[in-house]
Design brief:
With 96 residues, the chain is α+β, with helices and mostly antiparallel strands. It has one helix and three strands; from the N terminus they run E-E-E-H. It has a three-stranded antiparallel β-sheet, with no helix packed on it.
Length: 96
Amino acid sequence: MTAPSCPACGESALITRSSRAQTAATREVYGQCKVCGVQLRGLLEWTARLADGLLAPELHQAKLPMSPAAERQRAFDSYRAARRNEPERQLPLGID
């Protein structure tokens, strides 16, 4: 992951001083630029799941939706798995 750049000087020299939880999916982050010294406050928020982990989604503290791209991939994988279980649809050629 690349470090975010400083909004004041543009350098990627931000360091996190502290953070605290706002919700299960959001943290308030305090930082400072090592180059120009500006002090900042911002939010880090998780907005969607890209893949399921070991814990069932209904047990998650933060109820995040599955991302649209992950939903499409899941549907495609399900379709491919169903196609593999179908009998072959080719007609016999009748050539012996």
